[in-house]
Amino acid sequence: MWVFRPKFFEMIRTYNKQKFMADLMAGIIVGIVALPLAIAFGIASGVSPQQGLITAIVAGFICSFLGGSSVQIGGPTGAFIVIVYGIIQNYGIQGLMIATLMAGIMLIVMGFCRLGTVIKFIPFPVVVGFTSGIAVTIFTTQINDLLGLGLTDLPGAFAGKWAMYFQNIMKINLWEALIGIFSIVIIFFSGKLFKKIPGALVAIVLMTAIAFGVESYGLVDIVTIGDRFTISGVLPQENLFNTFSQGFNLSIDDLVKLLSPAFTIALLGAIESLLSATVADGVTGDKHRSNTELIGQGVANVISPILGGIPATGAIARTMTNINNGGRTPVAGIIHAVVLLLILLFLVPLTAYIPMACLAGVLVVVSYNMSEWRTFRSLLKNPKSDMAVLLVTFFLTVFFDLTVAIEIGLLLALVLLLKRLSETSKISIFHEDEDVEINYSENNDPQANGLLHLPEGVEVYEIDGPFFFGIASKFDESTKILGKKPKVRIIRMRKVPFIDSSGIHNLENLLRLAEVEGIRIILSGVNQQVYNALKKAGVVSKLGEKYVCSHISIAMTKANEFISK
């Protein structure tokens, strides 16, 4: 089966006028919803609003045209703000474009390597931890504009920003603070009044009109987008075409260092897009193609920096807006991109009048929605291991770096998982003159039932659980317990679903030691997967084929034959 099968080409075969009209309405509404978010995410990331719009157009089109979901809407998202801003601070806009390009290639490779399903297994506490951490960080970065403090050269660190805010709290611009706060209030409550019109758009239109009126009467000077950025309907100057034509300033060492943030962008993009697609499936009853989705997202992130855009992924809020307004095919996402393109070409100069405090209010609401504070609070009631992963990932995201947070969060989750697995795996030892339970079959053998009495000189070591490096040392310690040496040691593996290289190495050491001590090793109840691994490693040939038995009864027969020699 092909890995890359975009939904667009499948659904277009049965496309009709009725579907188009539904997609047209949904696409227009989603385009309007995406406008303020694209501008706000662009500015918050440290680039121009124009670049945010370009990203929404490029990703919106490519993710729908080449993606694996019928209703996914791609574009810039709040999750990328922190990582994008950090890359620009350390490597400049060139570094961001190269990192985005690298991330796109990584996503394409992930898709073709069929890693779409693997991404879904990233622990939930890790996802919530860094998502909540990003939300807190976004909120922190918006306080300056929200309150009109007018501060420049803010520290990059979380604590440093808040320290400067408190030191300059008396510099609050009352008009800008009111615009920011009223923007938040409008967004929260407009949904009850206007079902189809996004609250962010209502807030921007009203606050822009108020700000324009206030400035016209000369009452106060309010900082707007136009005061900080020059906006036009052409491609941004900061794109890969200009980068390579005007000179490339990054060294090989810089490119190597960019691999880490590029991987973070790719991983974050993969997680967010597949989570969004999964949520959408639950609403529409459709089933997305995860590997195709990764490839589509990868292509979008390769093309985006070439045209001057930033990283993009599937946006769950815009995707749900698409679904709620009747969008059911990728055509809705393409129409949303066309709507944004028309706005960029003909209406973008009007965005210069939008107050920065209003955009800060929009992003404060975005950060609130991202925080998942109810989920965060409920996870604190879970087992201590989950709580530890959640809090470590959260605090590392807030106080250090998103890249570090994801890496350490995943590592900690993996260590705790292995600890749990090793705790569930048990080793039981049965000595001579004891009974071994065989009250259910091994390998569907109907004769394997009841109790089996161990004769003199026979010991049974039963492993219950995966035989991997987490339990290999425990098994090694068990076999070295001092006492009378048996003539035959049966290793019962009926409950071992798999074995790794550490387990195989452990068995090889056991065979060498047993040969020196004159002890016969017999394996019992080995399933096909474990058998194949042992045979490939040469353990079966060293042990002897006849001493790898399908169940304990046969193993005991072999043991008696050996003892009677």
What can you see in these coordinates?
The chain folds into 2 domains: 18-369 and 376-416, no CATH class; 425-563, STAS domain (Transcription Regulator spoIIAA, 2-Layer Sandwich), CATH 3.30.750.24. The chain contains 24 helices and 9 strands. It has helices at 7-11, 17-44, 49-66, 81-112, 116-119, 124-146, 158-167, 174-193, 199-216, 225-228, 240-246, 252-284, 290-306, 316-324, 330-346, 356-371, 373-379, 384-399, 402-424, 469-479, 501-517, 528-537, 539-543, 552-563; strands at residues 74-75, 313-314, 426-430, 435-437, 451-453, 458-464, 488-495, 520-524, 548-549. It has a 5-stranded mixed beta sheet with strand order 3-6-7-8-9, sandwiched between helices. Strands 1-2 form a two-stranded antiparallel ribbon. A two-stranded antiparallel ribbon has the order 4-5. α2 runs antiparallel to α3 (49-66) and α18 packs antiparallel against α19 (402-424).
